[in-house]
Automatic annotation (TrEMBL):
Gene Ontology terms for molecular function: 4 iron, 4 sulfur cluster binding; cobalamin binding; epoxyqueuosine reductase activity; metal ion binding
The organism's place on the tree of life at top rank: Bacteria
UniProt cross-references to PROSITE patterns, sorted A to Z: 4FE4S_FER_1 (PS00198), 4FE4S_FER_2 (PS51379)
Listed HAMAP family: QueG (MF_00916)
SUPFAM superfamilies for the chain: alpha-helical ferredoxin
Source organism of the structure: Aureitalea marina
Annotated pathway: tRNA modification; tRNA-queuosine biosynthesis
Keyword terms of this UniProt record: 4Fe-4S, Cobalamin, Cobalt, Cytoplasm, Iron, Iron-sulfur, Metal-binding, Oxidoreductase, Queuosine biosynthesis, tRNA processing
Pfam families named in the record: Fer4_16, QueG_DUF1730
One record GO biological process: tRNA queuosine(34) biosynthetic process
Function: Catalyzes the conversion of epoxyqueuosine (oQ) to queuosine (Q), which is a hypermodified base found in the wobble positions of tRNA(Asp), tRNA(Asn), tRNA(His) and tRNA(Tyr).
Protein name per the record: Epoxyqueuosine reductase
Amino acid sequence: MNKSHYTTLIKEEASRLGFLACGISKAEFLEEEAPRLENWLEQNMHGSMNYMENHFDKRLDPRLLVPGAKSVVSLLYNYYPDKEPEWNGPKISKYALGVDYHKVIRKKLKALLRFIQESIGQVDGRAFVDSAPVLDKAWAAKSGLGWMGKHSNLLTKQMGSFYFIAELIIDLDLDYDTPVTDHCGSCTACIDACPTQAIVEPYVVDGSKCISYLTIELKESIPEGFRGKMDDWIFGCDVCQDVCPWNRFSQSHREPLFNASPQLLSMTRTDWMDLTHDVFEELFPRSAVKRTGYEGLRRNIRFADET
């Protein structure tokens, strides 16, 4: 069998497993991303995310992560909810409404890798779900799954941007897809709407100003300069995606594990202000919100309420 047949097998199985799309690119050094990443780090746009400074070469060359790697299989998994949450209080990003996506997608990635090994033969590789030094969006764009929007999220004409990105890096030679063109045009909706002006120029986000960073990654107190600018977000932020015209084409996901619990959606502002550790555990038993922890979420709630 030839690589075209293998490519078709992989993409068909990815679709069967529920992935929104699958694109494949050659595992090689990301030459265009290298100066962008270096400049972003030099300007301290990563804030306190010191881990972004680590493994610089591995972020740019998948062959350093998987010896002998030949292909990067990029996959999209939809998380757009059936109904826009009608919050009675502080807001949580759509991606964190249900079960932690790492758990859901990693299981499917491992199933895809097993399928490849069982159907094709001895293929070595690793699965990645936003948990290693991999430039997910760059690989997805290189694989033709979309283009990088001015808010730095991957965009597609068919589905907008509400999806997770994951990869399999494998030592199998396959047919490679080609990048698509940019369709942002003269639109600046995301730049204009960002509550903290974190999109400092088209395609460049100062992570240290982003509400997602402030409510999740930042472990210290939120700087006073952001008081009154958090737009009621207590975990993540969807503003730049919500205002993007391409997200008019978002379609509801089909993953029950991503659905929000009735208890979460019924929370009032008073409920959030009175949040106890026990209720936190009830609301987020297997959620990405666990990343900020109870005390971190309480900090975010108080900061949002005081604005």
